[in-house]
Design brief:
Shape: globular
Number of strands: 13
CATH architecture of the largest domain: 3-Layer(aba) Sandwich
Helix content: 25-40%
Number of domains: 3
Strand content: 15-25%
Structural class: alpha/beta
Strand order of the largest sheet: 2-1-3-4-5
Radius of gyration: 26 Å
Length: 384
C-alpha cells in the first residue's frame, strides 16, 4: 500500500463522519410544524399585547423546553366547526406535522353537540389525509356574565363530548375548559376588558402552558369527566333515574381503587368498568331519588405528585319537587347558607360581572331590596 493510499485508508472514517455530521445536524434541528386551528380564541382576539394569542407563546415555551418547533396561527374569528371543515384543506401546507384543533365556541346554543363532534372528527380526518396528527382541545369557558351560557352548562357538556372524542380516537387532549373553569381561581378575571368570551394576555399565557404541557408530556391536569347524566342543573328528572358518569385521565392514568362516588353526602358503592384512561361509573339508587340530588366524586391519578379530584359533579332536581323562593342552594330550606350566597350579589345589575341569576329572585334584572324581602319572608321555612 502506497503512503497516499495508507493515509486515505486511515482518514476514511473521519471523512465519512464529516460528511454525515451536516445531515445529522439537519435531522436534529428540523422543526416540528404545529398548525393552531380554530376561531377567534385561536386567532388571539382580546390579547392586549397584540402578540396573537396562545400560538406564539406556545412556540416560545416549546423552544424553552428544547423542542424545535414552529407554531403557525390559523385562527379565524367567528368561525364555527362547519366553517372549519370547509377551510381546513386550504390552510394546510406540505411539511405541516401537527394540527392543534380548538373549535366549537361558536357552535354553543346554535349547533348540536353531535354535529360539532362530527365536524371536529371530519377536520381531524382531513388533516390525517395530509399526514398530520391531530391534538384536540376543549373550548374556552364563557364569562359568568356572558349573554350565552354564562353558567357554562352547554360549554361544559361540549368539553365532555370532546374528551370522549379524544379518548375514542386515541388522540392527545389539551383541556382549556378544565384548566380555566375548574382549576384557575377567579377565572373570570382572565377575560379581556369588556369582553365575556375572549381571554386577555394573562389568559393566553395560561392556555399556552396547557398546550405546552401536553405536547411535552407534562401531566398537570386533574382527572376530568365526560358524560354526566343527569347533567348539572337538570330539572324534572324521573325519581328512578340511574347515575352515569364517565371519568378520564389523559396523563398518567386513574387510580381506580381511590375513585368514589357520594350522593347527598353519603358514599355509595358503584360498579366501575374500563381502564386507567377511562372508567365508567354507574349507580342505580336502591330507592327512588327525591328533592335535589347532589353527586360528588373523589378520585386521583397516578402522576407524581398525584392530582386529587374532590368536587360536586352534578346537582339535579327530581320531578315534582317544589322550592320556596329564596332557596338559593335548592336544598329544600331557606336558611343562612342562602343568605350568605345572596349577600355578595346584592346591588348587582344584569350587566355587572358579579350578577347571578339565582340572586335575582323576582327576575327583574337587579338584585335589590325586593329580592331580599322575598328571601326574608321564607327564612327558616322548608319545602320538602
Amino acid at each position: 500500500m502506497s503512503r497516499r493510499d495508507f493515509v486515505l485508508h486511515r482518514l476514511a472514517p473521519t471523512l465519512a463522519l464529516a460528511l454525515l455530521l451536516p445531515r445529522l445536524a439537519g435531522a436534529q434541528t428540523a422543526a416540528t410544524t404545529y398548525v393552531a386551528f380554530g376561531d377567534s380564541i385561536t386567532a388571539g382576539v382580546g390579547d392586549e399585547t397584540k402578540r396573537g394569542g396562545y400560538p406564539p407563546r406556545l412556540q416560545d415555551l416549546l423552544v424553552a423546553r428544547s423542542v424545535s418547533a414552529e407554531v403557525r396561527n390559523e385562527g379565524l374569528p367567528s368561525e364555527d366547526t362547519s366553517g372549519g371543515v370547509t377551510r381546513i384543506n386550504r390552510v394546510l401546507r406540505d411539511g405541516d406535522d401537527v394540527l392543534l384543533l380548538m373549535e366549537g365556541t361558536n357552535d354553543v346554543e346554535n349547533v348540536s353537540i353531535e354535529t360539532t363532534t362530527f365536524n371536529l372528527t371530519e377536520i381531524a380526518r382531513r388533516a390525517g389525509d395530509r399526514g398530520l396528527r391531530t391534538v384536540y382541545a376543549t373550548p374556552f369557558p364563557r364569562h359568568p356574565a356572558a349573554g350565552k351560557d354564562g353558567q357554562n352548562l352547554l360549554t361544559g357538556q361540549m368539553a365532555g363530548a370532546i374528551r370522549e372524542l379524544a379518548f375514542s380516537q386515541q388522540r392527545q387532549l389539551v383541556d382549556p375548559f378544565e384548566v380555566f373553569f375548574v382549576e384557575t381561581p377567579n377565572f373570570a378575571s382572565f377575560y379581556a376588558d369588556g369582553d365575556r368570551v375572549h381571554p386577555r394576555a394573562a389568559g393566553y399565557d395560561i392556555m399556552a402552558r396547557a398546550f405546552a404541557d401536553v405536547l411535552t408530556n407534562v401531566d398537570s391536569v386533574l382527572p376530568v369527566t365526560g358524560l354526566v347524566d343527569p347533567f348539572n342543573d337538570q330539572k324534572n328528572v324521573p325519581a328512578s333515574t340511574p347515575l352515569r358518569i364517565d371519568l378520564y385521565d389523559f396523563g398518567a392514568g386513574l387510580d381506580l381503587a381511590n375513585t368514589k362516588l357520594s350522593v347527598n353526602g353519603v358514599d355509595v358503592e358503584t360498579p366501575l368498568s374500563g381502564s386507567q384512561r377511562k372508567v365508567e361509573i354507574r349507580y342505580t339508587p336502591p330507592a327512588p331519588f327525591a328533592g335535589v340530588v347532589i353527586v360528588r366524586l373523589r378520585s386521583r391519578d397516578l402522576a407524581t405528585p398525584q392530582h386529587l379530584l374532590d368536587r360536586e359533579i352534578t346537582q339535579f332536581t327530581i320531578a315534582g319537587t317544589t322550592f320556596l323562593r329564596g332557596d338559593i342552594d335548592l336544598n329544600g330550606r331557606v336558611d343562612g347558607v342562602d343568605l350568605l350566597a345572596f349577600a355578595p350579589i346584592f346591588g348587582a345589575q344584569r350587566s355587572d360581572a358579579r350578577f347571578r341569576t339565582f340572586a335575582d329572585i323576582n327576575g327583574d334584572g337587579a338584585v335589590n331590596g325586593q329580592d331580599l324581602a322575598i328571601l326574608a319572608s321564607n327564612f327558616g321555612k322548608s319545602s320538602f
